[in-house]
Specification:
12 strands; alpha/beta; 3-keto-5-aminohexanoate cleavage activity; TIM Barrel
Length: 352
């Protein structure tokens, strides 16, 4: 992304889109005070986050026994109820469905390709499904302090090991097929990117004609194979993202607020919620709603406006698709592909 002399002025930045992730698939009941269990509680969590200022909802579903649901019927039911309860929110289903171990001593793992493909058939359709690009280690506990997980299920050695050893399976066989299925049903992919190499893979997908749509993505700074918390890496990632992309910052635990504060100041968007963080300060718990309110407060302090639901849908370009590779590159602010015989840098043709 390019920065001009006036790019840090809040009146020149897009309004802030706040993602809320209040369903914490890695936690069990009792790990956080605001983990929804019943379907009514799932819906109420969405309503509460929306009323606090969130306009994008990252969705997982929990069974009554407290474990993450892998039943598509549960997602169908929740989607239908959310369309009624929070019609202005961007509804985004987590592409893992559920990665939590089935029981103590089980593996933390993403579901099979065929199962994840079923997310394209959820009815009513979500606005987005998150998609991982390239198989990658996802050791979510690498950056956790002992205090982060004290008293939670992840403090148990068996659960800790399960999450330490987790891998995201997302090779070309998966993402090429998944992108096609999502497009066929008008569902926007929301790219969850762990590092610069994955951003480069997405650019190649676009340049080779495998994806014709908006580039909406998260920079996932959770460590353990994903990006870490070094501000220089965050700045470099922002610099490398195309001007026409929509970028959200995602971190973990007590790094969420400072990483997001940088993102708000630089004009990107933010994600919060108990899936990422349980704490306000060391030893002081913080609900998903309170985390949304904190982002609103930071934005207000800097003078940056918070987007409404309808504004968030426009910023995210929900429902927008492109005809071909050239149109996609143009809408993303990327230079054209090299034409045969053309040397040097590729610039857009100037039309008189």
């Amino acid at each position: 992304m390019h920065f001009f002399d006036d790019s840090l002025y809040p009146e020149n930045q897009e309004k802030l889109v706040i993602q809320a992730a209040p369903y914490g698939p890695e936690w069990l009941p009792g790990d956080a005070d605001d983990l929804p269990l019943t379907m009514d509680e799932h819906v109420q969590a969405a309503v509460d986050c929306y009323n606090a200022g969130a306009t994008v909802l990252h969705i997982h579903v929990r069974e009554l026994d407290g474990h993450g649901s892998k039943r598509m019927s549960m997602f169908n039911e929740l989607m239908a109820r959310l369309r009624e309860a929070v019609p202005d929110m961007v509804l985004q289903i987590g592409g893992s469905i559920s990665f939590a171990p089935e029981d103590e001593g089980g593996d933390a793992k993403w579901l099979s390709y065929d199962t994840r493909h079923m997310l394209a058939d959820i009815t009513p359709h979500p606005d987005q499904v998150t998609i991982a690009i390239n198989t990658n280690q996802m050791n979510i506990v690498e950056l956790f302090d002992d205090e982060d997980i004290e008293g939670t299920s992840i403090a148990k050695p068996s659960y800790y090991k399960a999450y330490r050893d987790m891998v995201v399976e997302a090779g070309p066989e998966f993402y090429l097929e998944h992108l096609g299925r999502l497009r066929a049903n008008g569902i926007q992919p929301h790219f969850q990117l762990a590092n610069m190499a994955q951003l480069e893979t997405v650019e190649r997908l676009i340049r080779r004609g495998n994806y014709h749509g908006p580039l909406v993505l998260n920079y996932v700074a959770i460590g353990g194979g994903f990006a870490g918390r070094h501000p220089a890496d965050l700045i470099e990632f922002i610099r490398r993202v195309p001007d026409g992309a929509v970028l959200t910052i995602e971190a973990s635990m007590r790094a969420v607020a400072p990483m997001n504060a940088i993102g708000i100041a630089l004009g990107t968007h933010v994600r919060v919620g108990n899936e990422d963080n349980l704490w306000r300060h060391k030893g002081e718990r913080m609900s998903s709603v309170a985390q949304v309110e904190q982002m609103v407060q930071i934005a207000n302090t800097l003078g940056r406006e918070v987007a409404t639901g309808q504004e968030a849908k426009k910023i995210y370009k929900i429902g927008e698709w492109y005809a071909d590779t050239d149109e996609t590159l143009a809408n993303l602010g990327m230079v054209p592909n090299r034409r045969p015989g053309r040397r040097g840098s590729m610039l857009r043709d100037i039309k008189n």
